Amino acid sequence: MDENFKSGFVSMVGRTNVGKSSIINSLVKEKVSAIANKPQTTRNAIRAIVNRDNLQIVFIDTPGIHKPKTKLGNTMVETAFGVVSDVDVVLFVIDATSKDIGKGDRIILDKIKESKKKTILLINKIDLVNREDIAKLIDLYKNEYDFEAIIPVSVEKEINLEEIINEISKHLKVGPAYYDIEEYTDQTLRELVQEIIREKALRLLDDEVPHGIYVETEKMKERETKSGEPIYDVEATIYCLRNSHKGIIIGKEGKMLKKIASYARMDLEKMLDVKINLKVWVKVKEDWQNDDGLVKKFKLQ
Are residues 193 and 277 located together in one domain of the fold? Predict the structure, then answer.
């Protein structure tokens, strides 16, 4: 083992919509986790891998902490808290626009105190507030826990992102590379397809269909075109809760579904550097969020 090589696991926890997935994707420099300006975008604990010289950090992006109303919601919250006990460092992300420690942040803070884990506090979206507000938040949280560091960051303005890596590396031990240095996620291609399609749907759909959908990759087959180029034939299904949602997802003359599929295909081709022939269908599966068989898929693996 290289005595100069460090590695370890880092969980990122925080309320919904504080920008955890955006930070992960910016650090990895690839789209690993779905990003949408809506709560509960991340449903699974998604592993993203950052490789630097003599360093490998495996980030675990967890679902946002929220008050669960379904079995799926319960599973998501359990997953987020379950990760904390099994990592080397915790990144606790809060929103810079917060004026105090809200109920959700307080719950997370109590879990961190209970775990006694090395924790770095990230104050995200600092481009939206002034320095005085940031200073007040720093003082507020300093009195709550002995954080290893407090780092104000902005994904939008790319402020202090590399400082996150530098600070984490101080708290990791000498260890092996758990993944190939060319890899940036442990998600399968099928899972990436599902994440990207769901992200596009969340971005494009009306608020009345926000989280009552999930995506399954039904088919993924590689072949060659007539000119000898590799191409993937991909078929996926968007499942929703009711027929009215199905109509919204498909849109007038199928335009919304075509837009979702087109945007997803462009992202996937860029990520995978290969042509994608993508077909997306929509089906209704009522009350799937309380279906034990389906909810199991979102449990921490």
Answer: yes
